[in-house]
Amino acid sequence: MNIGILVFDDVEVLDFCGPLETFSVVNDVSDTKSNVFTISKRKNPVQARSNLIVKSNYSIKDHPALDILIIPGGNGARKIFNDEEILKWIYIQYGRVKYLLSVCTGALILAKLGLLLNKKATTHHTCFHLLEEIDPTIEIVRDQRFVDEDKIVTSGGISAGIDMSFFMIEKIWGEDLAKAVAKEMEYYIS
Amino acid sequence: MNIGILVFDDVEVLDFCGPLETFSVVNDVSDTKSNVFTISKRKNPVQARSNLIVKSNYSIKDHPALDILIIPGGNGARKIFNDEEILKWIYIQYGRVKYLLSVCTGALILAKLGLLLNKKATTHHTCFHLLEEIDPTIEIVRDQRFVDEDKIVTSGGISAGIDMSFFMIEKIWGEDLAKAVAKEMEYYIS
Q1: Closest partner residue to A186 among B37, B57, B158, by Cβ?
Q2: In terms of CATH, what superfamily is A2-185?
Q3: Residue A75 and residue B53: Cα distance in Å, rounded?
Q4: Which of B20, B50, B51 sits opposite A52 (nearest CB)?
Q5: Does this complex have an ipTM over 0.90?
């Protein structure tokens, strides 16, 4: 299972590190292989939020085939709106992956691509109106940590990406594995 | 407020990114200045757990004076045990900082330095026995997310570092700010 996480300048740290950690711990508590890595536009270091400098594992031109693509949010997410190269790459990946996940304002990017047309979705609570503006056909879900639309799953703000990751682990590998990961991470899932 | 987070090869991602995120969001929701950065032994990239490559902001030789030092855990924490240079640096910082915090198996490093002598402390739930072995005078706390010993605060495994960060934000800046950060991060604190 290849799980790629897009990183970019001003990406919110927990948006991408929460899922990165959660999907990685799968390897610690089972024989399942969960290969999680970061992908950026170019392989140069990315200046994430909070002074965190990340060297991505791959660029959008040289990454392995993905089973899951995760689009985090943060202030940098809005710059992606004008980046046709990344938008096109996400769109192509959407056709290839099993699941496309967003965290926080990452949902705005999916909306911009038209991928949430007539779907239910969520985002950071301060950005519900933006999601609505981008695509008025989206049914905004304001009271859930994440929203499952089969191939696309969107999650709420920052820490909600962790809960979505647990949901996906349960969906893919079952409840026992999700519980084992939660125990290892000392995280409480409902 | 200068908050330094030690990073090293095989550091657990959420151990350091949880506090990094939480202390950073303080800046988003208040006029308080919370300057959070990573510190490594050398300024070379650090290969954290889960394929995450981090370029630290400072080395242990060139970082600004710290108010808070955070020692995360992970498999790499045990290698720090034999690194006299880092151990000495942590010990010196302990004399200078207002607070020394550990996440997960970072507590083992503090124990190794003798800093938890006759104190209550916690760590990842699979490592309680190791903490006891290193220093039998430590009173292991098995049922709390974090343990406050004034200048030293230890937290449990992986995600517990986020809860400890909220506790520290409340301790330093008050409950209202902690609540504002939690709301922004969509994290539930008790």
Answers
A1: B158
A2: Class I glutamine amidotransferase (GATase) domain (3.40.50.880)
A3: 21
A4: B20
A5: yes
